[in-house]
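Input chain follows. Return structure tokens only.
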Amino acid sequence: MTRSHRATTGGRIDRSVPIEFEFDGVAYTGHPGDTLASALLANGIRTITSSVILGRPRGVTGSWADDATAQIGIDAPYSEPMVPATTVELCPGLVAHGVAGLGALSSDVDTARYDSLHHHPDVLVVGAGAAGLMASLIAARAGLRVLLVDERTEAGGATPWAPWVTEAVAEFDAFDTTSRLVRTTAFGAYDDGFVLAVERRTDHLGLAAPRQVSRQRIHRIRARHTVVCAGAHERPIIFGNNDLPGVMLAGAAADFLRRYGVVVGTSAVVFTACDAAYDAAFTLAEAGVDVRAIVDVRTDVATDLTEQAAALGITLHTDSAVVGALGTDAVSGVEL
């Protein structure tokens, strides 16, 4: 039995409700609000699949669509040949497996319903993070018809827990001229303000999904103006063996803790070339993770960051770099 990596408090999951699921033939437990990736990490599972050619182990590197390694296939309660585990909401009856290479299409007849809907807003805003929410509110306050779409389950982007997010969403939803779609990915922009988006309507309900409701819906949007507020993906740093399970984007490690209450490891080394990773390092340290070091390629680091690192007992290596990760099946150390 693997040790739980779930923090005792925190996260935006419902700890009072267990969800049983199966991955690679083994039964595990998670909670509403988890993704498959967060639930596996909480159960101590680091290896999700393997690489195509060499069979090298592959783990979780990001916390959402920025993950490129934790590819899985879904067998039940619906079928998907190949999707990132980080974007699959945990649901009752979920059965999944790791995918090395290309996923296989199911030969079973798909009995789910699919439909489409047309929209003609004045303004389409893609992304409900800080920029998207503010853009939507400005347009709504001006009396325009606004459609706000976001691929996650709630607004707020990287900070859904911020108090201002709740206030902004409540104000936006109160307008008669606004509409908001969650679990909706805008995937194509074409001539004359035409945008296509797909809404995942019932996948998160699992076996409880009502059969009369479409599983997915295509939204055909013809907007006078489109504002794209898709945010940014953290970029990984290249070094030897950086594909080992346990090597993860710093922001993802912090996101798993804040959003899902998952401590991705008992010890960590944070490698960075900017200030942003310090927040992740401090967040992990405050949660009880033994942050052995922060390795910064820069010579000069802001005094407040160095002082906070020292206060938390974190060793800071400036003008340094990680040149390789150590380990075979998972990362066990780094070489500077």
